[in-house]
Design brief:
The chain is mainly alpha-helical. The chain has helices spanning about 10-60, 70-95, and strands spanning about 105, 115. The protein has 2 helices and 2 strands. Strand 1 (about 105) and strand 2 (about 115) form a beta hairpin. The two termini are about 20 Å apart.
């Protein structure tokens, strides 16, 4: 559509720049939404795990029965795995965000910065 000969080249360049800027903003908004959704999912799962663990401990303490040794070991293993998964997700997030450190950027005549 922007290649029509009826358009003034300056107007065509302006419209093309606006188009690219809009696309870049949309991509940024989608990534932000994806990250926020992932963070909220993690928070919800963490909350569910904490509630289930609390119910398990409360159930065993009301009956004055100590938790079996294997159950304690299992809970320790789950906690260690949960910690590892959290660290791994943080590393993955840093890696994904580092893409923006090397993203090409263009500066137009007006001095406005946008995606290249």
């Amino acid at each position: 559509m922007l290649k029509q000969p009826a358009l003034n080249p300056d107007k065509r360049d302006t419209l093309s720049f606006r188009r690219l800027k809009t696309i870049a903003q949309f991509k940024y908004d989608m990534m932000t939404l994806t990250i926020n959704t992932a963070e909220e999912t993690i928070r919800c799962h963490t909350h569910i795990i904490a509630n289930e663990k609390k119910k398990l401990i409360d159930t065993s303490s009301y009956g004055q029965n100590p938790l079996p040794k294997t159950l304690v070991q299992l809970m320790t293993i789950i906690t260690a795995r949960q910690t590892y998964m959290t660290q791994r997700s943080q590393q993955i997030l840093k890696q994904k965000l580092s893409v923006f450190d090397h993203a090409p950027v263009a500066i137009n005549v007006a001095g406005v910065i946008g995606a290249n």
